[in-house]
């Protein structure tokens, strides 16, 4: 069999031109998921019948002279909190396993398949998305394809790692406090958390609804843009969705960052950082010629308020299940959710007031700068099963602190692209490109510039043993 | 919180809230919930000092054209 393109753009181009059979692409993806995906424990359901049926439909469209769309024949996977018609939505929990199958696809699945994409699998995650490691107490840990003794990050760990391992060109995950950005950092792929309200979350199992976003993982900015563009558009099923018209990413222009005001975040965002994460943020700043530093508004307070908001909204969401099936939760998730149900109302209200205040301050900051840089994680992927990490001589809980640099940013509803970076130290680590609300096109310009600037910003697929 | 305020009673808060919610927990779980509540109290201390002027709260959260 001739070698298949590994990128979404290449697959779609060849399928649309009639040069590549989408069924062969789907078969290759399904085979890889059955072997590598199972080996690394990245997938829950492999949807062979569905994928082959969809691929045949794309093939028939091509035969009729129709255009299946910009993702023609592109295989993709979704975190298992997205509804997929005909299968039960697990959200990483055994509690959901007895539920009836979903009656309708989530909006993200509908939109990607309407663009010609081929859904191949659902992917492992932290239970109810409440974690940063994807060491699921029920379904086991996901293994990082760059070093299988290490975590993938979470909570969208299976989604990021499927892309990093070269098993799929695209995955869709969700991000409440960093669940796209942390695993994209630790697995070394591009990840996008869009502006809150930019992309429909309909049919995605919620965690903390005032923070939840969904977005794509890819190994290139072109593929990330293809997925993002497909996800845009109206959807009456998500009342939070912004009425702003979609602004799809155009890649016809050269990657150009001239005129953009870019700064790196100082203070809070400079520590704790290990040697590799320090090298990564320096490499990105150097590549962009960044000399200015900016102060993010009250990041420590924002992170703390995000913690409370997540616990409170998550606890409220799960209260009825906690009454009935507390023992079936992952013990750590159960205790965090129950603590969330106990919080005084005034604390939650104070967190929301702070959010509005800091959002106003962030708007002022983005009057001075277009894009801000920050580390995505303080470290490369920690070992599986290791609760603590030592950074700069300080021992800290690994799971909680993997989101130390992502939580303040998402609390203010800002869009972020995580750029992967390999500085020669071995494991990858990511850098956040942060923009004002609804400035995703600017973030893509900067990410594309970096991607074209140096190989260290282009993901490599590791050989799986 | 002023210096003469009583210490945060995570255990008392947890017992009252769990009773109100109708949640029964094994003692081991209860101790962990209390530990989590104390952690959340530490987080709250990071932003409880922010103050808002009268009416500012309503404007921030519930302004009609927001």
Comma- or semicolon-separated keywords:
heterodimer; A: alpha/beta; eleven-stranded mixed beta sheet; two-stranded antiparallel ribbon; 14 helices; 15 strands; B: 66 residues; mainly alpha; 3 helices; 58% helix; 0% strand
Poorly predicted sequence stretches spanning 5 or more consecutive residues of chain A:
none
What count of structural domains of chain A?
A: 1
Structural Rg of chain A:
20 Å
Overall, the morphology of chain A is globular
Measured between the Cα atoms of the first and last residue of chain A, the distance is: 22 Å
Oligomer: heterodimer
| Uncertain stretches of 5 or more adjacent residues of chain B | none
Sequence-ordered SSE layout with sheet pairings:
The complex is a heterodimer of chains A (465) and B (66).
Chain A: H1 8-16, H2 22-39, E1 43-46, H3 48-63, E2 75-79, H4 107-114, E3 118-123, E4 135-136, E5 140-141, H5 157-164, E6 170-175, H6 181-187, E7 190-193, E8 213-218, H7 221-231, E9 262-265, H8 275-288, E10 292-294, H9 299-325, H10 331-341, H11 345-368, E11 371-375, E12 388-391, E13 394-397, H12 398-401, H13 407-411, E14 416-421, E15 429-435, H14 440-453
Helix pairs in contact in A: 2-3, 9-10, 9-11
Chain B: H1 10-21, H2 27-45, H3 56-62
Protein model, in words:
The complex is a heterodimer of chains A (465) and B (66). With 465 residues, chain A is of the alpha/beta class. Chain A has a single domain (8-457), classed as Amidase signature (AS) domain (Amidase signature (AS) enzymes). Chain A is 38% helix and 15% strand. Chain A has helices spanning 8-16, 22-39, 48-63, 107-114, 157-164, 181-187, 221-231, 275-288, 299-325, 331-341, 345-368, 398-401, 407-411, 440-453, and strands at residues 43-46, 75-79, 118-123, 135-136, 140-141, 170-175, 190-193, 213-218, 262-265, 292-294, 371-375, 388-391, 394-397, 416-421, 429-435. Chain A has an 11-stranded mixed beta sheet, sandwiched between helices. A two-stranded antiparallel ribbon of chain A has the order 4-5. A two-stranded antiparallel sheet of chain A has the order 12-13. In chain A, α9 packs antiparallel against α11 (345-368). Chain A is globular, with a radius of gyration of 20 Å. Chain B has 66 residues and is an all-alpha fold. Chain B has one domain. Chain B is 58% helix and 0% strand. Chain B contains 3 helices and no strands. Chain B is elongated, with a radius of gyration of 17 Å. The mean pLDDT of chain B is 87. The A-B interface holds A 298, 300-305, 307-308, 311, 319, 322-323, 326, 331, 334-336, 338-344, 347, 349-354, 356-357 and B 13-14, 17-18, 21-23, 25, 29, 32-33, 35-37, 39-40, 42-48, 50, 52, 57, 60-61.
